[in-house]
Amino acid sequence: MSRLLVAGVPRSGTSWVGQALACAEGARSVGEPDNEDNFPYAIQAKAGLGRLPVVAADGPAPAAYEALWEGAFAGGGNWPSLRGPASLGLHAAAKRRRSVHGSADWSPGQRAVLAAAVRLSHPGRPVDARHVVVKTVFAPFALEWICRRFEPRLVVVTRGALNTVASWQRLGWDPPLWRHPALADGGPDALAQRVLSPEAALRAPAAPAADDRIRRLTWELCVLMSVVFDVHSSRPGSVLVRHEDMCVDPLEKFRGVYERLGLGWTSRTDTFLRASNRAGTGRYDTTRVASEEADRWRGRLDASQARQVEEVVGSFGLDW
User: Fold this and answer.
1) d(CA 107, CA 214)
2) pTM to 2 decimal places
3) Contact 32, 135 (CB under 8 A)
4) Residues near 298 by Cβ (< 8 Å), separated by ≥ 6?
5) Is the CB of residue 318 less than 8 Å from the CB of residue 226?
6) What b/e string do you get for 205-237 counting C-beta neighbours within 10 Å, with b at 16 or more?
7) Mean pLDDT of 65-83
8) DSSP string of 120-163?
9) What is the residue extent of each domain of the chain?
10) CATH hierarchy code of domain 2-79+122-315
């Protein structure tokens, strides 16, 4: 069984890329096993680590977090018992389409149901497949550890800073490091110095104030992407996929990625890519009119906001 890890940051196109690669011959998809809103075991595995766990490249990682990834790369299957379905059912009942990250404001009863879901949860079990395609946007600060520990073929998905920040802004998201437990040790600048390479840490500007929203979103995006780019550069065979480039001609571009990864093209791949090239119907829909993606930010950021994004990206010495 070969292991593929599709990694990036939220709203960068990882879902689209991951789903397209999972259409390959003999492939199985494991989407965001570390997303607490999708899988109750992720709540258990990431307890105390925050939404973006920081794990040193040479480890060790908490046992439950390691088990999460071991289960994901084994295929992420359900165990033949009632625990898995019961856990997922309780998780959905507690959430009611909300994020578990707001559970502090839930009623005691809803929190009790969520706690029961977590107690019953377990990591995935092995599944027979030729390729396992695991996708994550919550592991940039653990990415090197994951790659060293499980040796997947890494596929890094990037989306231009203007489009990514515009998407975060449109959705009204807090900066991704907001309330991160590591901030207790010195704030965002200290966290950046901890996770960045020495070279990137020297270049990184001070974090903008939290109320300087566009600059702060961009600064945190640049911290995340600096780490991801460093891991990509250090991993032989890592494939870099630029979302805007893939949208120019999805069928041709994905055929090239399939070839680089040694994946077998299928009619399902062709059908998926053609079907996804249409307007989406919801906030998190992965369908899109591909030709409109490159300049989508223009309808979401004004000229001043775009300049702020470009200035912060330039101060990191990044260009993507």
Assistant:
1) 34
2) 0.93
3) yes
4) none
5) yes
6) eebbeeeebbbbbbbbbbbbbbbbbbbbeebee
7) 92
8) H----B----SEEEEEESS-GGGHHHHHHHH-PEEEEEE--HHH
9) 2-79+122-315
10) 3.40.50.300
Residue 60: cis peptide before it, omega within 30 degrees of 0: yes
In the structure encoding, which two tokens stand for residue 191, read together?
């966290």
Q: Are 17 and 158 in contact (CB under 8 A)?
A: no
What single-letter amino acid sits at 168? W
pLDDT digits (tens, 9 = 90+) for 240-253: 999 999 999 999 99
Question: Which residue type occupies 187?
Answer: G
pLDDT tens string 190-228? 999 999 999 999 999 999 999 999 999 999 999 999 999
Q: Is residue 13 within 8 Å of residue 296, measured between CB atoms? A: no
DSSP 48-110: TT-SS----TT----HHHHHHHHHHHHT-BPPSSSHHHHHHHHHHHHHTTS-GGGGGGS-HHH
Residue 132's DSSP bridge partners are 3, 28
Q: In what order do the strands lie in the sheet with 27-31?
A: 27-31, 131-136, 2-7, 153-158, 239-242
Between CA 305 and CA 218 the distance in angstroms is 10
